Amino acid sequence: MKIKLAIAGLSVLALALGGCSDDPSGSPSNPPSATLNTNTISILIGSSGQAETDAVKKAAADWSTLSGIPTEVIVASDLNQEAAQGFASGQPADLLYVSTDSLAGWTANGSLEAYGSKLSNLSDFYPGLREAFTIDGTLIAAPKDFSTLALVINTRLWEEAGLSDADYPTTWEQLESVAAKLTTDGRVGLAFGAELQRVGVFLAQNGGSVVANGTATANSSANVAALTYVQNLVSSGSAAFAADIGAGWGGEALGKELAAMVIEGNWITGAMSSDYSDVAYKAVELPAGVQKGTLQFTNAWGLSADGDNKDNAIKLVEFLTSTDQQLAFAKAFGVMPSVISASDGYRAQFPQMSAFLLGADYAQNLPSATGVAATIVDFNSTLGQLKDSDPKALLDAFQTNLEAALG
Prior knowledge:
Elements: H1 10-17, E1 41-45, H2 50-67, E2 71-75, H3 79-89, E3 95-99, H4 100-108, H5 127-132, E4 134-135, E5 138-139, E6 142-154, H6 155-160, H7 172-182, E7 188-192, H8 196-205, E8 211-212, E9 215-216, H9 221-235, E10 239-241, H10 250-255, E11 259-265, H11 268-275, E12 281-284, E13 294-303, H12 310-320, H13 323-333, H14 343-349, H15 354-358, E14 363-365, H16 372-383, H17 391-406
Parallel strand pairs: 1-2, 1-3, 7-10, 7-11, 13-14
Antiparallel strand pairs: 3-13, 4-5, 6-11, 6-12, 6-13, 8-9
Helix pairs in contact: 2-13, 8-9, 16-17
């Protein structure tokens, strides 16, 4: 089934229907009006829940009211599978959510069309987000929204440990110190997932990365030192991987007070509100090693190469990534705007989320080249044993796998 959605703006109609002239000859200075393509624009989304579904559908309906172009939003149960089926059939959704993991493969096989240079609001996207969806210097798709990681603190436990706002850690040494003070029987000071998607912040803070300019750099001296720091932190007993303290993820560890601090993304707010509403918390920027560092996670609006209404679909993307609409999405389901013009409004509406937004200035993207996702899964499978492993050996194995994936 072809999956449809639409959006543009009044300017679309002005351009498409305008230009009419009393001169029946239609001179070059007053050409005849173009025929407006009113085909339904389709969008395939992988929704986080009803709030996101409702918000996208409302945005689509609002744009349809402005443009007169019909839209249809379909929520996928398995977005990658349903997108692949659409591409293979030649009947794909006009627009669809695209993850950084899927971008390279779908671009290489011709499923996605690069349209970034056609966006009127191109310069408004955060540079790091544009980088996430750029291949060989070409921006493939518009960043939809994003999240970063920050240090999320249980404020009651913080105060009970005799700590104040002045004690929020800004260095690794301070992080070690407060984690130790917050550790008691049955609770660690700090918890995070045993995965690159969390541990990677320490690599970034030490000036490292796992891929730089298309080259694998996983076993760099900076990364070895950073992973050794994490090993020492976990071995000290003041920090732990979430699974080792009986938590499925950082939000559960914080909510159940199995940890006083966690490294998590801004999506934690939804879980804390719905599942642990009695737990007070605050998010602050992650402490720096040799520099500030965090990770960011993002999706984009992909444009199908076989779509039949591409010009209007791009206008739809411009509407969806406009300042007001980005703030509406933030209010509806907790994402952060991908455009800089919405940053002041976001901070004003959600001051408690400022630490996450500040991370946009220095956040790293995880590598997204074809085949790299599998190497990250393999690396994550070894991190749980970090306490009893050689950090360099783990990174050497990761390096080997990355080099093979990157060719």
